[in-house]
Amino acid sequence: MVKPLSFSERKNLVDKYLTEISLLAKRLCPDARVEVTTEAFEDEDGHVRIYTPAGMNEEEVAVIEGTVADRCVDILIKEGAFICSAVYD
């Protein structure tokens, strides 16, 4: 069960995981452009948008997308932070 957090604790938690996800994306694809926002839609806490370089094949994009999405789900389950990610090719 996720414990209730103060506003500042929640913000720090979300910032920590947005940073982690963006660094994961850069490790998976160093040439990708990664954008991070704390836009709030519905229950979402933040967004990570990953723009892969031209010419990547579908399998490479799928690996990035799956790995990042799996980590976002882990964070949601463990910490209750709803980080959305999307990969654009």
Q: How would you describe this protein?
A:
This protein is α+β, with helices and mostly antiparallel strands and 89 residues long. 49% of the residues lie in helices and 19% in strands. Helix 1 (7-28) packs antiparallel against helix 2 (58-79).
Topology diagram in text:
Blueprint: H1 7-28, E1 33-37, E2 46-51, H2 58-79, E3 83-88
Parallel strand pairs: 2-3
Antiparallel strand pairs: 1-2
Helix pairs in contact: 1-2
Percentage of residues in strands: 15-25%
Largest beta sheet: what is the strand line-up?
Answer: 1-2-3
Largest sheet: 3 strands, mixed
**Alpha-beta content class:** alpha+beta
- End-to-end separation: 36 Å
Overview features:
three-stranded mixed beta sheet, single chain, 3 strands, alpha+beta, 19% strand, 49% helix, 89 residues
